[in-house]
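FAQ: What does the model actually see?

It sees only this:
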Amino acid sequence: MKVYRHLFFDLDHTLWDFEKNANETLHTLYERHDFARFGTFSAEHFIQVYSDINHALWRMYQSGKISQTQLRDVRFSRTLAKLDVPEADIPVNISAEFTDILPLKSAVFPFTHEVLDYLKPKYRMHLITNGFNDIQEIKLASSNLTHYFESIITSEHSGHLKPDPRMFQHALAHTGATATESLMIGDNLECDVLGAYNAGIDQVYFNPEKRRHFAQTTHEISCLSELKAFL
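And it is asked to produce this:
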């Protein structure tokens, strides 16, 4: 079995449960701004519309079509416009409120701390994420994850976005790792698996929903506890 020295983890949707934490935050905003007063959409509908729009904007951001500022500026205005909220009733600071509240949430995937406790004495561990600098460290602190990782490599830090191989090459250079002794663990087939593959790095595809796919991966797991079987 191949021996690894460096483990690179994605954060959102791999360790930190983005969907659960985001949904809690969106519920808070729905109640704070009394969107129920419009009588036309529930909190669940608000969350679904936001999620669809946010995912589409993130795809544009990751392909370089929009900036971080543009993503943050339009995701709520587009959501509420689609829900027929009058422009005058769209809270001006709702995007900033979301960014303030979200990283304070602490939900992680099952076995996250147990597995990281198991891995930490055996490997040098790092994070590599397309998330924004100003909230990733807060997320880590809120969910008690900071102490596991030597390095946090973000897209802003590297100047590139996953799946660009240059982001992975930057991560290797920054940590002093080589591709052959490194392993990437993440939930996104394109950003994490294909990106790492193109940089010559083995991969673990974290697929908790067991989605069907045809990609070739070094390893695939549906629960983080399965990492202990080969690491």
